[in-house]
Amino acid sequence: MKDIYVEFGSSADIKGETNDAKHKSANAVEVSTFTHLIRQPKSATSSSAGGHTAERTEHGELIFTKDIDKATTKLLQACSAGTIYPSVVIYFYRAVGGSNSTGTGSNNRVNYLKIELKNALVSSVSTTVAEESIPTETFGLKYSSIRWTYNQSKIDGSGIESSGNNIQGSWNLANNQVAF
Asked: pLDDT digits over 56-82, tens only?
C-alpha cells in the first residue's frame, strides 16, 4: 500500500476530500499516482577528451492522478489564473508494521518521502472519463524550489526518528543550484 497526499497550505482554496486522520485537517488532496522527470540535457559542446559538459537542469512538472473531487474546480481555476502557492507539501506513505507507524492494526504505515515546493503553480489539469471507469483527472505542478526528504526506516517502520536517517536533497531553479 502506498498513500500520497498533496497539501496546498491552510489558507489555500484548493481543498481535498481525504478522510485520512493525519491529513484531513489540512484538507489534503489524495492522489493515486505520481510522476516527475528531471533531466540533464546533453550539451552541444564537449571537452577535448570527448566528455560532455553539464547544461542547466530541466525540471518537468510533478504529475498527479486523482479521482474527481471537491478540489477539481479550484485546480482548474488555479491553472487558468496562474495562481502561485507559496508552499506545497507532498507526503508519501508505505505500509509497514511496528510502533512507529501512523496507522493502527493492519493499516500501519510510515512517511518515507516528503517533497516540499516553494512558489508552486498548477501548470496543467486534464480530466478523463474512460468507458466503465471512475472519472479521474491529472494535474501538474511547477515550482521555483524543491526539497526532497527521504526518511529511512527498517521494515517494521522503526528507526525513522533517528537524525541520521533523514536524507535531504534540494534544488533552486532560479539560482540553478543546491538550495531551498
From this structure: 889 999 999 999 999 999 999 999 999
Q: For the CA atoms of the chain, what is the radius of gyration? A: 18
Q: List pLDDT tens digits, range 15-36.
A: 999 999 999 999 999 999 999 9
The CA distance from 31 to 78, in Å, is 18
Q: pTM of the prediction?
A: 0.86
b/e 15-29 (16+ beta carbons within 10 angstroms → b)? bbebebebbeebbbb
Decide if 93 is inside a domain.
yes
Domain hosting residue 110, numbered range: 2-39+57-172
**Domain count along the chain:** 1
168 lies in some domain: yes
Report whether 4 contacts 64 (CB < 8 A).
yes
Phi-psi region of 77 (alpha: psi -120 to 50; beta: other; left: phi over 0): alpha
Contact yes or no for 15/27 (Cβ under 8 A): yes
In this structure, what DSSP letter does residue 54 have? P
Residue 107 lies in a domain: yes
Phi, psi of 72 (to 5 degrees): -55, -55
Minimum mean pLDDT range among 7-11, 48-52, 90-94: 48-52
